[in-house]
Amino acid sequence: MKEILVISGKGGTGKTFVTGSFAALASSAVFADCDVDAANLELIMRAEIEERHEFKASRKAFIDPDICTRCGLCQSLCRFGAIADELKVDPVSCEGCGVCYHACPVHAVNMKEIVSGHWFVSRTPYGYLVHARLGPAEENSGKLVAAVRSKAKDIARSTGARWLISDGPPGIGCPVMASMAGVSAALVVTEPSLTGIHDLERVLELCNHFQVRPFVCINRWDLDEDNASRLEETCFRLSVKVVGKIAFDRVVTDSMVRGIPLVEHSDGLVSRQVRSVWESLTAEVDSVQES
Fold first, then answer.
1. E strands, 90-212, where?
2. Is the pTM of this model over 0.85?
3. Phi, psi of 130 (to 5 degrees)
4. In this structure, are residues 135 and 49 in contact, taking their beta carbons and an 8 Å threshold?
5. How many helices (H) and strands (E) does the chain have?
6. What is the CA radius of gyration of the chain?
7. How does pLDDT run across 109-150, given as a tens digit for each residue?
8. What is the mean pLDDT of residues 225-239?
């Protein structure tokens, strides 16, 4: 099994539409949506949920009113303003630091594990998809990404899948690191803008740190050909291969609105370019693994 991670240094570059097209092009594959803060790969893969699991990775403080003596020590020590005058904890403001728990002289404070989100196993026309949904204002998205990847790997091994393709989070933070460790290769989808160039360099540095071979796809390259050339120059300078360029076309938006992968919606220029990216990428990954 070979694992390909599709990422971007910034949001909005088009990595999910590329991943969705890969789903329609790949055979013998399992998919993971590691963008747990804003998962939407399921929308274009027509996912039908088969399993639903709770994700618990954080704790909140709860005050037992039968034990509390109303001394106010917890309220004075809380740096997040999470304890109101009536000595009740606001679960949204509580960061779970545990100061009130350790400071309470009568042990009236309990730290309880809470449900931070859910993760799912879904069946799609293209194979199994493992995805998740993190609750509003919840943290530990890196742990949720790890759980999604772990389940996707288990399914890929048990079904004998050839590919594990993951739609990664944007940026270079903890969720991206949790998505990247140990993958066979990373496809960085970028765009010809100044922020796109800057964030491409950052995410390539992250790939280098994790010793993951990166490849680059320039999406909407024809909107700014000068910056597209600068992206190619950056990749050449850093010895990173550009496996393809995709032109701007409103047909991409149409396919997303219809909830189907682009390559199934259209067989025009952009679809052929996406197919070319997939073929070039998989050929490169195969050659890297064989060497």
1. 109-124, 127-134, 163-170, 185-190
2. yes
3. -105, 125
4. no
5. 11, 9
6. 22
7. 999 998 989 999 999 999 999 999 988 777 778 899 999 999
8. 96
